[in-house]
Design a protein that fits this description.
Shape of chain A: globular
Distance between the termini of chain B: 31 Å
Strand content of chain A: under 5%
Low-confidence stretches of chain B: 358-365
Number of domains of chain B: 2
Number of strands of chain B: 19
CATH architecture of the largest domain in chain B: 3-Layer(aba) Sandwich
CATH architecture of the largest domain in chain A: Orthogonal Bundle
Radius of gyration of chain B: 24 Å
Order of helices and strands of chain A: HHHHHHHHHHHHHHH
Largest sheet of chain A: none
Low-confidence stretches of chain A: 1-6
Radius of gyration of chain A: 25 Å
Number of strands of chain A: 0
Shape of chain B: elongated
Helix content of chain B: 10-25%
Helix content of chain A: over 70%
CATH class of the largest domain in chain B: Alpha Beta
CATH class of the largest domain in chain A: Mainly Alpha
CATH superfamily of the largest domain in chain A: MetI-like
Oligomer: heterodimer
CATH topology of the largest domain in chain B: Rossmann fold
CATH topology of the largest domain in chain A: MetI-like fold
Chain lengths: ~290, ~375
């Protein structure tokens, strides 16, 4: 009895003495990541001319609210207003995340729960698309989109990014971990495949769904190369591209505006991560079954 | 309430035959326990009846209706799974109501049935809980409730008690029996636990490597095992199986290194010298001279009785004796078989040898 009490005390003592090395490295890391962010935040509130001269202060300036309001509503240096770019980005990220989830959910459902000819072949065909992201097949994909007349359309912007195997693999693992007896119990209860998918499979893998949605939303939000190629109309620029468009000739760039736009571009993915994370961590730690 | 018939049911997975033809007829309301070692095909048999697997040959007839090619949901059968298989995201109520909702029952009817079943099982206070908030025994009850609430023609139980601790298992065993009697639903119950098999079944089907070894009442299986497999499988500790030869014109067995045992119930067929296996349960070896002199190796006191393990000679098979009372002090124990409880088997085929025709049956009841 006294021996266990002693070890418990030891643990408390160990906790009271911080590991300075680990804390040092972690603090350095935080600083390294937080500094550019702070710089953008501080820069967005200062006078553009001062920034251009190299007088970027580490302290926020007085012009904050006005700069944000201006880029949001009017844009800067002839670029589209930021609210519109954010809208395009949000639409793109949502459609890509939702589309990928639907496509890969159904394909994983087929591969795990159905016995059909060439099931393995189908799975490997899906698997191989992992090695062929849009960046690799960008020219043929562009050619296909051009033939379909989908250049400069929202469809052309999103559809090629939806088809890939990442999420299929993940769902396959999740579904394969579901006990056979659960599937059989549903069959005995009279649930057909689609009802099983809706009533059992989706709720049981809700936590994974949320986690995947976060990852895919950020993936969609950060797309750069494909939108650059397929959308030449500024009306279709997502914010990631719009920011680059705002950086015009060096001497004329409205740096405060660019930094404000960058900060605005950061907010939605951060919001999604923060909101969804709480939800899926709860789902993971509560522990089903 | 329904009858179940199996006709020549076979199942192979690829080239591996798992079931070699099962014939069975269950009257309405019967509880039939399928028992056997793991891998004997008992679970496969249950899954064939459930419709979760399709038989390679044979027919399944439930209440006069051929259900061999029907989907599980169309068979009017409910199953209780080993790991309960409760839907983790649904409350107890929803777990039980799910099958009824799919069948399109009215909201009021579902509520009535679930509450009634919940009261029957003593889980009516838990209806709003999720499965993870329940103990093992409570989950087991919910799993049974999910089957009962459907009011099916047939219950299937797939080792439903094997995940419970020993005390709870005894309690649930009695409860399952009580419920099954009360509801009167024809039931198939698969287990590898012979105590469960003996206590639960109206009849037992003992299976050995995909074949039915014996189909009879528990007491008959115990008192007249059909072959060596059943003899060794049913009863704990297991029956002693001793090599012997037929003697005295079939009227006795000469046990190797043991006594000559006369059969009180009649002659066995075959010439003298025919190779036999004589089975004697541990409790049918009585202390006293005229049988075996065992060199005692191990004594296990169980309280009201004592198990003694010993051999007649160092290279001989172990013989287990169950003696009433406290452990004996001797290192040599003399025991003699009770001649009224001899089981005689053919050493070559393993089949039980009963007295030749015209002789009285083994011990009238």
């Amino acid at each position: 009895m006294s021996a266990t009490a002693l070890t418990a005390d030891d643990i408390v003592v160990a906790r009271e003495r911080p590991d300075w090395l680990a804390h040092g490295i972690l603090s350095l890391g935080v600083l390294l990541f937080a500094f550019p962010l702070w710089l953008a935040l501080a820069g967005s509130t200062q006078d553009s001319d001062a920034i251009r001269r190299g007088d970027l202060s580490l302290l926020p300036g007085p012009d904050g609210v006005a700069t944000y309001a201006h880029v949001l509503v009017h844009g800067s240096m002839g670029a589209a207003p930021v609210w519109h770019m954010l809208l395009i980005s949000a639409g793109m990220a949502l459609v890509i995340a939702a589309g990928k989830i639907v496509v890969s959910l159904l394909s994983a459902f087929a591969v795990v729960f159905f016995r059909f000819p060439f099931r393995r072949t189908a799975f490997w065909a899906i698997f191989i698309t992992l090695m062929l992201p849009v960046e690799v097949r960008i020219i043929p994909t562009y050619a296909v989109m051009a033939r379909f007349g989908l250049i400069n359309t929202f469809t052309g912007l999103t559809v090629p990014l939806i088809a890939s195997a990442t999420a299929t693999l993940l769902f396959r693992q999740v579904f394969a971990a579901i006990p056979d007896e659960l599937v059989e119990a549903a069959r005995m209860d009279g649930a057909g495949p689609l009802r099983f998918l809706r009533d059992i499979l989706l709720p049981v893998s809700a936590a994974n769904l949320a986690a995947l949605f976060v990852i895919l939303f950020v993936y969609g939000w950060n797309q750069y190369l494909w939108p650059l190629l397929v959308a030449t109309n500024p009306r279709l620029d997502p914010v990631v591209i719009g920011i680059v468009q705002m950086i015009g000739v060096e001497a004329e760039t409205d740096w405060a505006g660019v930094m404000a736009a960058s900060v605005l571009a950061l907010l939605p993915p951060v919001l999604v991560v923060v909101l969804m994370q709480r939800w899926f961590v709860a789902g993971l730690t509560e522990g089903e079954k | 309430m329904a009858t179940l018939e199996l006709h020549g049911l076979r199942k192979s997975f690829g080239a591996t035959a798992v079931l070699h033809g099962i014939d069975l007829a269950m009257p309405s309301g019967e509880m039939l326990v399928i028992v056997g070692a793991s891998g004997c095909g008992k679970s496969t048999l249950l899954r064939l009846v459930a419709g979760l697997e399709r038989p390679s040959a044979g027919r399944i007839v439930l209440d006069g209706r051929d259900i061999t090619s029907l989907d599980p949901a169309q068979r009017d059968i409910a199953m209780v799974f080993q790991n309960y298989a409760l839907y983790p995201h649904m409350t107890v109520f929803d777990n039980m109501a799910y099958g009824l909702r799919i069948r399109g029952l009215s909201r009021d009817e579902i509520r009535r049935r679930v509450e009634q079943t919940g009261a029957l099982l003593g889980i009516d206070a838990l209806l709003a809980r999720k499965p993870r908030q329940l103990s093992g025994g409570q989950r087991q009850r919910v799993a049974m409730g999910r089957a009962i609430v459907r009011e099916p023609a047939l219950f299937l139980f797939d080792e439903p008690l094997s995940n419970l601790d020993a005390k709870l298992r005894v309690q649930m065993r009695a409860e399952i029996r009580r419920l099954q009697r009360r509801l009167g639903v024809t039931s198939l119950y698969v287990t590898h636990d012979q105590t469960e098999a003996m206590t639960l079944g109206d009849r037992l089907l003992v299976m050995n490597q995909g074949r039915p070894a014996q189909l009879a009442t528990p007491m008959e299986v115990f008192e007249r095992p059909a072959d060596l497999f059943v003899a060794g499988f049913i009863g704990a500790p297991a029956m002693n199986l001793l090599p012997a030869r037929l003697a005295r014109n079939g009227g006795a067995a000469a046990i190797e290194d043991g006594p000559l045992m006369a059969f009180p119930d009649g002659r066995r067929p075959g010439p003298d010298g025919r190779r036999l296996i004589v089975g004697i349960r541990p409790e049918h070896l009585l202390a006293g001279a005229g049988g075996f002199d065992l060199i005692v190796e191990l004594v296990e006191p169980l309280g009201s009785e004592t198990l003694v393990h010993g051999r007649t000679a160092p290279e001989r098979d172990l013989i287990v004796v169950k003696l009433p009372g406290p452990p004996p002090a001797d290192t040599i124990l003399s025991v003699r078989p009770d001649p009224a409880h001899l089981h005689v088997f053919d050493a070559d085929t393993g089949q039980r040898l009963d007295p030749s025709s015209g002789q009285p049956a083994l011990r009238p009841p």
